[in-house]
Design brief:
This protein is α+β, with helices and mostly antiparallel strands and 668 residues long. It has 22 helices and 9 strands. It has a domain of 178 residues: Heat Shock Protein 90, CATH 3.30.565. Helix content is 74%, strand content 8%. The chain has a 5-stranded mixed β-sheet, with helices on one face. Strands 1-9 form a two-stranded antiparallel ribbon. A two-stranded antiparallel ribbon has the order 2-4. The longest helix is centred in the middle third of the chain and has 77 residues.
């Protein structure tokens, strides 16, 4: 597609966007006219909310203004204002995540109090969107599925379409393509049956096809999403489809088309006030212009990208968002504690009622002294048990409140403190011993007769202590370095790399590293390399670090199994393979070691989690490796393992740019 054609298409886009916006004007005019006419104030509140909804796809600032008017009127009338809170939260979602979360939570509590199921589902979806923005998969999907259940209970199929598509987009964000395909296909089938729009759904299906390397299918789906979004003048959807198309062309090695669609998506998002859309488009444009060596254009869009990141995810805003989330968790925990206290109170009332019955029975049978004695004994035992139960309940409630206050801080510091404590204790102990040795040698040298042998022995011990201090100091330093590497962000330069050569080099490096520590250890190394694989654009230093870590772990696993299976003829083996697929390249690292238990497999990518003995691992290697592969290269890192049989790690990377070009990516 030549440049002149691009310009003509861009002109047509601007005209079409204007036409799409004008297509909404009659409805907006009709709603505004109704607001000006005499009518009940409660109806006026709902009309203002509808106007805010209509503006949300066109101009976020106008949507915010009408939502504020609706909220102010509802509060003045003491009318339910959950809908207005939700609309205002939606308008503020792009610029103030913390405030938006507060508004959605308030609206959700109102909906639950008045049993308004549609409004409850709307707020659950809105809160889920915020958690997905923040890459909190568990929380986001939890809210999405709660909203889906309400839609299904109400029999509202139009709402169900939206919830299914949102769940599919969430799985797509975390590269779980099978789940993403399943939910998007369900949403698409239901939407086609209902005759509703499918522009968002086609965009989600296009993402799945692109990541699977089905490039022609992805282009068709993005184009259909784009055309339908243009027809209805939905600027946010125009941004999504355009950015999807730009990402596809970047993956296909067509930078001119990628830049064209990224600019188009950026313009649509700026008109709407959709800051996250501006961020996504400006990020693509920054990468593309840097790859082409156009520094001025790259700087322009990089400045825009940085401004969007600061507006959306600045440190102050993230901290405030965490505070809001923490307060909501405290509120939920307090409500749960109050519920438990209420249940305990009911149990107490039941016990008291039983006690009254026992007393009545005692009065009826008072004439029988023997029975009277037994009843009194039972009554005393019941009173003691009741007092003990009440005391335990009160103590449990106090412990629960204190434990939850400390849980947040404890989770943050426990991993770091645990890892640093051992090397610091060694440094302290060896330093104290070294001090005693210095005092001892001073005493020997000032004595009447110097003992050269004793001095030599003391100095040798002192030297050994200093070596131990250095070793454990380096251990603490490596933990801190690993933490810093795990958190730092920057830009690395992709270069066309011989992936087969990189794989072989790091396998040999890992093997020699293990052999340096255990000279008696030997293992069979094998490779299955795709000879048709050409140069692949990667950050070779970062990817080499991943390969070295995976190979070292594989050798450690086979070494452990060899130790456990001594005398059985077990032969350690590590195999590494490469294979090129449609639009992707795959690297597999397989061993016949001890394998990973199912209970451990779910946690191996967590920072500071390790199964190695103290001092042999920081627990950051696999976490850092997955960050390099997913965030730095847009790929995936997965694991397959059977306990006692072996483990296989699988890296899948997209083929993004031609070998002659380099591209900036995020390095861990």
């Amino acid at each position: 597609m030549n440049l002149r054609f691009h310009r003509l298409l861009l002109l047509w886009l601007l005209l079409a966007l204007g036409a799409g916006a004008r297509a909404q004007s009659p409805k907006l005019d009709r709603l505004r006219a109704q607001v000006r006419q005499p009518q009940p104030d409660s109806s006026r509140v709902m009309l203002l909310c509808q106007i805010s909804d209509e503006y949300w796809t066109l101009r976020v600032d106008s949507a915010e203004a009408y939502a504020r008017r609706a909220l102010a009127l509802a509060r003045r009338l003491h009318y339910r204002h959950g809908e207005a809170l939700n609309r205002l939260g939606a308008a503020l979602r792009e610029s103030n995540l913390a405030r938006a979360l507060e508004l959605f939570q308030q609206s959700l509590r109102i909906a639950e109090a008045i049993n308004d199921k549609p409004l409850e589902a709307q707020n659950l979806r809105s809160i889920g969107i915020l958690y997905i923005y923040l890459r909190d998969k568990h929380q986001g999907l939890s809210y999405y599925h709660r909203a889906l259940r309400i839609g299904e209970e109400l029999g509202d199929e139009h709402r169900t379409v939206i919830e299914l598509s949102n769940i599919g987009l969430a799985y797509d964000l975390f590269n779980e393509l099978d789940s993403a395909q399943y939910f998007q296909q369900q949403a698409y089938n239901l939407a086609r049956r209902l005759g509703t729009r499918t522009n968002y759904i086609r965009y989600g299906l296009g993402n799945v096809a692109r990541k699977r390397g089905e490039l022609a299918k992805a282009r068709a789906l993005y184009r259909q999403s784009y055309e339908e979004s243009m027809e209805v003048g939905h600027l946010r959807s125009v941004n999504f489809a355009s950015v999807g198309m730009a990402t596809l062309y970047q993956q296909m090695g067509r930078p001119d088309s990628s830049i064209y669609y990224a600019r188009q998506g950026c313009a649509a998002a700026q008109r709407n006030g959709f800051l996250r859309g501006v961020l996504n488009a400006s990020t693509l444009l920054t990468q593309s212009f840097k790859a082409r060596g156009q520094a001025d254009s790259a700087l322009k869009y990089q400045t825009l990208m940085v401004a969007m990141k600061d507006t959306l995810f600045g440190q102050e805003k993230v901290m405030r968002l965490q505070t809001v989330n923490y307060r909501e968790r405290q509120r939920e925990q307090q409500a749960a504690a109050e519920q438990q206290a209420l249940k305990a109170r009911y149990r107490t009332y039941g016990l008291l009622a039983g006690l009254v019955g026992v007393l009545a029975l005692v009065l009826l049978l008072g004439w029988h002294s023997r029975q009277q004695h037994r009843v009194n004994a039972a009554l005393a035992q019941s009173n003691a048990a009741l007092e003990k139960s009440l005391g335990e309940l009160k103590a449990t409630q106090e412990q629960l409140v204190q434990r939850e206050k400390m849980a947040f801080l404890g989770e943050l510091t426990a991993g770091i403190a645990h890892e640093l404590q051992n090397p610091l204790n060694f440094v302290k102990n060896f330093a104290e011993v070294s001090t005693d040795l210095v005092n001892e040698i001073n005493g020997v040298q000032t004595g009447a007769a110097r003992n050269a042998g004793l001095e030599h022995e003391i100095l040798a011990g002192l030297k050994q202590n200093l070596q131990e201090i250095s070793q454990h100091g380096q251990r603490a330093s490596s933990i801190i370095k690993g933490m810093l590497e795990h958190s730092r962000t920057g830009t690395g330069q992709r270069e066309a790399t011989n992936l087969n050569q990189l794989v072989e080099e790091n396998l040999r490096l890992a093997y020699h590293g293990v052999r340096t520590k255990e000279k008696s250890f030997t293992a069979q190394l094998s490779t299955q390399l795709d000879t048709t694989l050409g140069p692949v654009p990667v950050v070779s230093q970062d990817l080499g670090r991943v390969l070295l870590n995976l190979c070292t772990n594989a050798l450690y696993a086979v070494q452990q199994r060899q130790t456990q299976a001594a005398g059985t003829g077990f032969q350690p083996e590590v195999c590494i393979a490469t294979r090129q697929g449609p639009g992707t390249v795959e690297i597999r690292v397989r061993d016949n070691g001890t394998g990973i238990p199912e209970s451990v497999k779910a946690r191996i990518f967590e920072p500071f989690f390790t199964t190695k003995p103290v001092g042999e691992g920081t627990g950051l290697g696999l976490s850092l490796s997955r960050d390099i592969v997913t965030t730095g290269h847009g790929g995936t890192l997965t694991v397959e393992s059977r306990e006692g049989e072996g483990t296989e790690f699988i890296i899948r990377l997209p083929l993004v740019v031609p070998a002659a070009l380099s591209q900036p990516v995020r390095a861990a």
